[in-house]
Amino acid sequence: MSIRSAVLAAALAPLMASSAAAQLLSSPLSFTVSAGTAIPIGDTSDALNTGYSIGGAADLRLPLIPIGARLEGTYASFGAKGLSSTNISARGTDLGANLNAVLWIPTAVPLPLHPYLTAGPSYSHLSLNASQGSNAFSTTQNHWGFNAGGGMDVWLGLVTLRVDARYKRISTDNDTFQSVPVTLGIKF
Length: 188
Known about the structure:
With 188 residues, the chain is mainly beta. It has helices at residues 3-25, 44-47, and strands at 29-40, 51-60, 67-79, 88-104, 113-132, 135-155, 160-171, 176-187.
């Protein structure tokens, strides 16, 4: 080991020890509230415009273990395409839940950035509501699918932000519902 390597290792040791100690002392359960955009893709984008997404998550991560679990509740709303020249209004919604495994990617040096990958099953209550004057139409479907993506927790002193992007695919009676929610959250 060179003198330079020994000096670097000695300088980083307190940082790594304090990061490990902080993780040992932290609660294994954390919560996140988030909001952002929901982008329909594939055939779904033919019928729906980009919408919004809101949600909440509970993470379970045991100290010093990079794999954990995340339970999420999500809601996304999308406006229908091609109705601007008519007096018809229509919205599609996705009320769902995800149960994911999470892999927090270890970093060589303790940083305020904590990247992760996540994937798991999704359950969605999909609905389409349309109206024209006093006439209204509504249909719903409940289906299973999956989601996969990644993100990063960014520690900013008193607050931790979460940036997350996913691919979500739900099999429906006749097709698939596909979207990419991109959210920003506050973790506590």
